[in-house]
Structure formats: structure tokens, C-alpha cells
Fold these 2 entries.
Entry 1:
Amino acid sequence: MRRTPAALLLLAVLAFPLVFARPFPRHVMIMIFLYGALATAWNILAGYCGQISLGHAVYFGIGAYTSTFLVREAALTPWLGMLVGAALAVVVSQAIGYPVFRLRGHYFAIATIGFGEIVQTLVLNWDLVGGARGLFVPIKRPDSLLNLQFHDSKAVYYYLALGLLALALGATRWIERSRRGYYFRAIREDQDAAASLGVRVAREKHAAMAVSAALTALGGTFWAQYVLFIDPESVFPLSLSILICLVAVMGGVGSLWGPLLGAVVLVPLSEGTRVLLGGTGKALDLLIYGALIMAIAVFQPAGLMGLMRQLRRRRAVAPSGEVRQESAA
Amino acid sequence: MSTPLLEVTGLTKRFGGVVANRDVSFSVGPGELVGVIGPNGAGKSTLFDLITGFIRPDAGTVRIDGREATGLRPDQICRLGLGRTFQKLRPFHEMTALENVMIGAFLSTADVGEARAAATAALASVGLGDRLAVQARGLSTGQRKRLELARALATRPRLLLLDEVTGGVDAGAIPGLVALVRDLHARGIGLIVIEHNMRVIMEIAQRIVALQLGEVIADGPPTEITRDRRVIDAYLGEAWRA
């Protein structure tokens, strides 16, 4: 019975570009998928394993820069560049993880901010990759899947972003149901108790970081091919790291669908204010985010997923009215 | 005599100027039930932390089954067959009782179904068979003690270090917990038990190690310990003098 609405929703998502031919609605959906994928990737490390990273822009940027650099210098297809970027992101994430995983809680989060800033500064001053000027992806015509460029229609981007999201959700689902997922949650709850039960805490954290970084880097390559211009300000900023975190927190961390739900709510808000207010409203979406995050933190720390669970419970018991007493007792 | 399961030699740990453990030596044979007693601050929990790898000793060695185990990480100690519980209980609050114990069971299998079955059995063996789906935060203190036991048991230890079995639980729950420890012993698991309730420890321990100010002041059967002048002065008080 629950399958039917889910199948209809999936069908609607797949048919969306056929119905909406104009670029803007497609763009909003693409952004939902991309941020949904990024937040889902972040959620594997932060939501399940409890390691709140505020430096995930590093992996996004590595993905974007690696594929773009290889397209320019080696005429390598972005598909391969994407894989190289993901591999490089994993290597960097393991190197960063080595020192930062010794820290716990807020100190870990702060250290990841530090690494994010370091990497952005390095790229800003690295002439080989364009420094502060950034890099253009060389325009290739006609549109082709091999070159991962589409100038006439956003439809292919739409399905690519959807595929990326599906990959991130699939990876999360797979981890959630395996030993690793149980270990991640145990580490989030109490890593010393986990260690006393034989869990190799450092190794598990590194694994979570690797998966999370790789998926985030794939998103970076997609972004580069979508906008065809990248610079340190657009793919390595702290604000991106924070936004990824906000989207996930808004939806509900540590759950499969939470981060996507956050993207469904926040992305249209951001795109909407941008369109309505133009450049003058640049920070308005952030103001609204801030207010929403405060509301979430105060009223429903489990995010929208927690809110939905609550509503479902209430609706389930409303007709009899009996359970309300029970919950009050 | 066979190799002791655990052999601690000359273990010393200083925290700044305070010596938490000084030259502590003792051993535990397979299936033995050893009590550790001593006043607050005697270094009992520190000793457990040193043995299980949570703290590195400044000097001395830990051998498990004759193998050098000094300075290993907690997860490595666990893999050598040493389980432990914590004085301040540390359940995974947001996880159900079953999931808590599955973390221990995963040591011997990567299969979720097998871990679930093993965890279910471990929970049943500590009397929590009807609490599988309850979140750990929803359990009483006595139940959480049992949960920690089940979790450690699920790693299939040969030696279990229990930090205060009856501490903090109401009097009514004590006999059940004591019976549980006896049951574990009967299954052939070696046990080292820190315990403040003298009646309990006298009743169950085959041997008692008494600590004071980080040093071993007595090591012997319970009847001998209660007659030991230093133990009476340091810990038991005049009431225990025969």
C-alpha cells in the first residue's frame, strides 16, 4: 500500500522534464537533486557516524577542479575526470582525517573548517589551476554525453543529477543495512564504548569519510559541467560547506530521506528569493535559513523527518483520543 | 600450572603528581572469579582502563594468554577476548537494546541476521528477552547494567571485567544481578569484578585483590582478606574484625 504513492512520485519525477520544458523549473529540480545528493553524502559521515564536518566544500572543489583541469590539459572526458576527482578526494580526505579524527565534537568541526580554508587559499594562489581567476570548461559542440555538455536543453543534466542523488541514497541505504552502518551509529553514540566492543573506531571513521568525500566530489564534477566555469569562490567556500550541513540538518540527520527532504524545502526557497529579489536579495535566503535552523533547533532537533514522524503518530492516534492520555502520563 | 589468562606485572600509572596505580601485579586464571576491592580513589577503575587499553601505563606489562598486550588499543584488547563494562554506564542511547548488543555480536560475524540472532540470545541470557525493541534510554539502571553485560557477552569474551555490578541499582535488583554474575561464572567465563558491596563480593569471589592508594595490599581468598590487618584498616573497618 505504501508502494503505490512512492511509485507514482518516482514516475512524476522521471516525467517532470517532459512536462516542464522551460529551463527554470528544470534548474530548480536539478539544484534539489544536487544539494540532496551532497547533503546525503555529508549525512553518511555526519549523520550516521556523528563526525560533523564543515569542510566538505574541499571535496566538492576537488571534484570540480580535477575533471575541469583534465578536460583542459589532457582532453580527458569528464566521465573519467569525475572518477579521478573522486579518487583524489578520497586520498585528500584520508590525509585530512588522520589528524582531525583525533579530535571530538566541536573541535573536530572547527578543524574541518580550518582545512577547508587552507585548501581554498592554496587553490586561490595556485596559478597552474587558474588561481583566483578560476577555470572555464572548454565549450564543445555539438552536445554530447561523452563531453558531458548540453547547451540546448537541461533535460540530460536533470537525469544525471537524479542519478547522482540515487547513487548517494543507494550508498546510504546499503551502509545503513550493513555492519558498517551499525558501527557508524555506535561511534556516533559513544566511541569508547564502541571500541570496548571491538570496533576499530579510526578505521570506521575513515571509511565514512571516504564514501562521503567520493560522492561529494562527483557532485563537484557535475556542477563544473553544468555551469562550465569554476573558481575558488564558487566551489571551495566555507558557505558551501555550511549550506550542505544546513540542508541535512533541516531535513533530519541520521535518516535516509532527511537530507533530501531538507533540499526539497530549502532549494526552492533559495532559488525563489534569488529570482524575486535578484542581486539585492543575495543574503535573504540565508536570513531565512538562519531563522529556520533556529526554529528547528528549538522545536524539532530531529529536523523535518522528526516533525513528520510526530505528525504521523498524532494522526494515527487522533480518532480514538486514547493515546493522548497515554503520552501525557 | 597453565598460563594465566591475564597477567599484570608492575603496572604503574601517574596522573601528574598523583600515582593512580603503583607496581600492581596479579594474575587471573581461566574461569576464575576475582574481586577487586578498595576505597574510592584506590585506583580500581584506572586498573581496568590500563588493562583494557583506554589508558597507557607508565610502566609494567599486561599479558593476555601469555601474549604481550601492553599499550594495545581497546578494540585490540577486545579481540583478544577481554570484555568490559563501565562504572558509569555507557549504553548507545539512541539505539534499541537489540542494536546495542548487535554491536558486540558483530565482532564474530559481518552478517546482520546472524548478529541479530546472537544478540537476541545474549539479551535473553541476561533476562532482557522482552526488551529487544526498547531504546536504551528507556531502560532502568538495573536493566542498563544487564544490557552492558549482554553487549560485552556478545563479543564472546574469555574474561570479563565488570566495573561495579551492583552500584547505583536499588536493593531489590541486587540478587538478580548477583545470580547473573554467578551464571556467567558457571559458563566458564573468567571474571574480574569491582564491587563495593562487601556482602556480595565475599559471597561470589574465589579470590580478592585489595587496593589502597594504587597499591595491592592483599591478594587471597575472601576469608583471608577479611582477617588482613591492612585491609581492615584501609577499607573494611572494625565491624569486619573477626
Note: Chain B has a mean pLDDT of 92.
Entry 2:
Amino acid sequence: MEEGTVTAQLDTVLRQRVFDSIGVLLPKVLSRETPAISDSTQLMSELGLRSATMLELLLELEEDLEVQIDVEDIDQGDMNTVGDLADFVAAHATTDG
Amino acid sequence: MTAIEAVATYLPDQRVSIEDLAGRLGLRPIQIKLFRRFLGLSQIRLDPAGTLLDLLLAGAAGLDALRGREHQVRYVLYARTLPVVVPYPLNPLHELCRALGLDRAVAFTVTHHACATSLLAVDIAGRLLAADGEPDALALVLTGEKTFTRDAQLVPGTSIFGEGAAACLVRADGHRDRLLSYATATKGEFDGRLEDLPELAARYEQEYPDSLAEVLLAAVAQAGLTLEEISLILPHNVNVVSWQRLSRKIGFPVDRVLLDNVPVTGHAFCADSFLNYATARDRGLLRPGDRYLIAAAGLGATFSAMVFEH
């Protein structure tokens, strides 16, 4: 198997973990129950996240997944939907230690 | 053409970490982490025993260019974020004028551009002096505020205010730091206490980057320049991440946005512009002929930018 294929598979696994973790962490970050999410769920207009709660969610994801997320490159486009955020985190996460 | 002749700054000695502020501000551990990790804030300066007058006097104390020229000062402008800072009829500005021997100056406060008011004050000072037509006349712009309430200490999830002061001597014309342009936009639709108005806060967050980018680019264009000709941006010290995003948005290298004071001072209201100017000057980051941007945004909301030539 080529190296690129392995990386792509690992990213897919990590992305699914990120997606699942977002679903678990959203009620904690927003301090209320949240509806079931899909890739297309809008983080701001549907769930009511704001810039600060978005960053809190990233911190919670780091802790939950035991990764570090490089946020220097994050842009508005990475925070539109749950799918956008999961893509960004999976692409910018490095394992602790 | 309006010019800055001299700038003096002051930061109180007491350094307070955001962990030590957490109890007073009601910050949860994850919010402290957010401030440190993403927003780039770690401490502020405070002088809990000092009055507003103490703070402003300390800001002016280092202004050597004022000594012996007090009689040339026609205007004293106190630029501040908060509309009310002392109970009536106290007026520390007039006390300060007496203490500095500036009794003959017309002294008044400039506000309502919130944290962008220092730029407005420099512009007003320059225009008043130009209208008077006295070449040796000076104006003194003062900044510095006390963090006396929670709203004066914290913008939740965005910034923490600290105490600091600055005094800036302005002339109608000069060669030191010449004002090339001033762009400002006030968007009154964002007036309101954002903490109480989540929809307004969400809209403000959404429009903030475009609004600030517009005035930055407008100021550069008014100066007849391109962004490539700007050597440095002196920002307001609201936080690091918003400036990182804005830099990317306008295509300006973030390493030429002076963010070094954010972790040291927090957001010192209207003093940020001058604190950052002093840092750039003292570190030799500005060479003669360099064009630089001073930028600020104020809640309420006003977005402002000035281009200067050093």
C-alpha cells in the first residue's frame, strides 16, 4: 500500500472521531441540549456557536481526542458547517507527545 | 499636514495574570485557556490604588518634548473608550491641565468612537491647529482608562482590558510622523451591550473583519499607496487571533503586525495605538520614510485607520 493511501485512511478515521466528538461536546460548550448533527449542520446559524464558543469547542476537541490543533490558518470558511470544521480539525491535528 | 511630534507612554508596575483575574471576571478554566492559547493574552497591568488622574499624569510624565513649551499647547484632548469615567462634577482632565501648567489650553474629551477614539482625537487636534494657523501651536492628546467595572475589564471571549496611558504631542505640520490619511466608519447598527444581545453579537462578529479591512484599505488608498508599501501595522491590542485572520484576509504578512504587546498589556483601551507606536519606535522598527498604519476598532461600532510617514 502506498504511503499516501495510508495517510488518507488515517485522516478518514480521525475525521470520523472528530465528527463524533463534536456531537458529544456541543451540549457542553453551549450549555444546552443540541439537535443531532450532520455534515451540513450550520454551526453558527443553526447551533448558535460564536467565535468564542467555536474556539472553546476546539479546545475541548483537543482534550477529548488528545491532539493539538494548529488554528493559525483557520478561516471563516472552516467554521461554516460541522463538516467544514471536522475537515479542518482532521487536517490540522497532531498527536500529543 | 498633521504630524505627531512626540509620544510618551506609561504602564503600571503591577502585572496581573489572567489566572489571577479569573475569579473577579468569572472566567472558567477553559476560557482562561482560550485567552492564553488562541487569543494570545496572558497578563495585564493594573494600578488598583491609583486614580484616573494618577494614570493620565504618569502617561504625560515622560513627554520631555512638552517641557518648557506648555504655553504653546492650545488644545488638550482626552481620548477615551468609555463615555463616563468619573462622577459629576469631578474632572480629572482639568486637574491634569493645572498640574501640567496647561491652564491656557482648551481642554475637552473625545469619545463615542470607543477604542478607536485616539485616532479621531489626533485628527481633530491636527485640524484645529491647522485652522488656527499658528505654526508653533501644539495639541496634547491623552489616553488612559481605569478598569473599574466588569464591562471595563472584559469583552467575553474576545479581550481583557488593562491599564496603561499615553500622551501624544500633535502639530499642524511637521516632519516626524506625518499623517497621510484617515479613514473611519461608524456603524451605529452595532450599538448595544453585546453580552445581552446574542444576535447583534453574532452579526457584529460576522461583519467585523470586512469592516476593519475596508477602512485599512481605504486609508492606504487615500494615502496614494498600496498595501505593499506599508511597512508595519500598529493594531489595537484586542487579541492575536483576530489580527492573524485579518492579515490573511487583506494579504498582509502577520509578522509585520505588531502584536508583541497583546500578551503584555492586554487591551489598554485607546492607549494601544501609542503603546504600540512607542514599542515600534524604541525597537527601531520604523525607519525614516517608512509608511505605517495605525488601526483600531471600537465597540458600538467604529472602525478606523490612519497612515503615517515616519
Note: Chain A has a mean pLDDT of 87.
